[in-house]
Amino acid sequence: MPILSLEPNVYPDDLLAGGDSAEQADPGDRNWWVLYTRARQEKSLARDLLTRAISFYLPLVPRRLLIRGRAVPSYVPLLTGYVFVCGSDEDRVRALMTNRVAQVIDVGDPGRLRSDLKNIQLMIESGTPLTVESRLESGSQVRIRGGPMMGLEGIVCRRKKSSRLIVWIKMLQQGVSLEIEDYLLDPID
């Protein structure tokens, strides 16, 4: 795997900004799709989408990799195999023409997906170590009441005598968690 510095992982920069309604997020003929990539093609697909000016989001997190006995910093996809695209039907076809996509997943609730992706981006920007969670079961819905992630909503779970807040993308049945103190959480009715 080539070691690369942080590359653009969202195009345009304001793709996830703004209100949470589907109308504000996706005006006109723009739709959201989840592209499931061929093995280890996420960053290459993101580069191809950037050169074609197709709106996308690829959550990347910093990792230290051990290569030939040396620790090397790199940025790796948080959700392995997935790139999120927002565009027209023509953009979807142009993305498929890169020959890096194995499957296209239709998004049933684009407003919800966009909101989930905004939450994931907020967690990445916090710099807190994250853990990918798969096939999550429902728990208590909570909201963070203070700190840099104030207002972030998710599900709380217990693991090894500590609390973790999970923010997940329901349609993929995958999510991201971080360790958090109970006193920072308020239940959502």
Tally of distinct domains: 2
CATH fold call of the largest domain? Alpha-Beta Plaits
Biggest beta sheet summary: 6 strands, antiparallel
Q: Looking at the structure, what is the overall shape? A: globular
Helix-strand sequence: EHEHEEEEHEHEEEEEE
Write the layout of secondary structure elements.
Blueprint: E1 10-11, H1 22-25, E2 31-37, H2 42-51, E3 55-57, E4 60-67, E5 70-77, E6 82-87, H3 89-96, E7 101-106, H4 110-126, E8 131-134, E9 140-144, E10 153-159, E11 162-169, E12 174-180, E13 185-187
Antiparallel strand pairs: 1-3, 2-6, 2-7, 3-6, 4-5, 8-12, 9-10, 9-13, 10-11, 11-12
Summarize the entry for a quick read.
Helices cover 21% and strands 39% of the residues. The protein is α+β, with helices and mostly antiparallel strands. The protein starts with 9 loop residues before the first strand and ends with a strand.
